[in-house]
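EI: anyone free to look at a 106-residue chain?
SC: sure, send it
EI:
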Amino acid sequence: LDSTTVGEVLGEALRAALRMIPQLRVTPRSLAFAFRYKTMRAREIGRLVSAASVLEGSVRQAGRQLRVSVQLINVADGQTLWSERFDRSSGTRQQGGVACVAPPRL
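SC: here you go
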């Protein structure tokens, strides 16, 4: 799998996990993907969709090594509320680890 596909799979797993937290309002996938290739900052997107915070992330691949970076941005002031980096071998089946780790820390 390429890093774009891995990113989509991880993003959907994380969105599903976040939807399980009753206090969070998670935008529909179609709305989130509408901003996928835009050159807008997280704060701008958050304002457009009336969100208090925006979750953004990236997936980088070098050979068999994957690095997933995720951060939660406060729309009001642009401050990072939470961030985490995950390094994994792409041959392992630990990709769901991002979704399992993020919600409890939020």
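EI: Strands lie at 53-62, 65-74, 80-89.
SC: 👍
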